[in-house]
Amino acid sequence: MKDGTSSTLLIGEKYLNIKQASFTPDCNDDQGWVDGWDNDTICWARGIVSTGAIITPQPHGNVGTCGGNFGTIHSTITTVFCDGSVHNITLAINPTTWLYLAGIDDEGVINGNEIN
């Protein structure tokens, strides 16, 4: 892993459209946790389209999409990096930094002030 385990995202909270989830299963929460490769359990820094715009973590209900995004109801998203460290990352993280955290070999420089 070129970028190192201490600067690579492994796990993070997922986005839910709480406006929809309150009355019907949201497409990001309609399968079991053992479903495997589904947007219930997999998220991307660019959403489902790998060449699309960078999508930083979103507040729940903000985007209204089933795009496999990260998100939270709080002001920070709780994440685990590949080295096992736990970080709270602000929803206002720089999109480029967010993309660097999601990659394992982009050799991007992470601004430590943006991760907690």
What do these coordinates show?
It is a single chain. This protein is an alpha+beta fold and 116 residues long. It has one domain (5-103). It has two helices and five strands, in the order E-H-E-E-E-E-H. It has helices at residues 18-21, 95-102; strands at residues 9-12, 58-59, 71-72, 76-81, 86-90. Strand 4 (76-81) and strand 5 form a beta hairpin. The two termini are 22 Å apart. The mean pLDDT is 80.
Beta content comes to 15-25%
Number of helices: 2
Span from first to last CA?
22 Å
**How many whole angstroms does the radius of gyration measure?**
14 Å
**Biggest sheet overview:** 3 strands, antiparallel
Report the average pLDDT across residues.
80
> What is the number of independent domains?
1
Which term fits the overall shape? globular
Task: Give the helix/strand class.
Answer: alpha+beta
In the predicted model, the low-confidence regions spanning at least 5 consecutive residues are: none
What pattern of helices and strands is seen along the backbone? EHEEEEH
Q: Helical residue percent?
A: 10-25%
How many strand segments? 5
Spatial order of the strands in the main sheet? 1-4-5
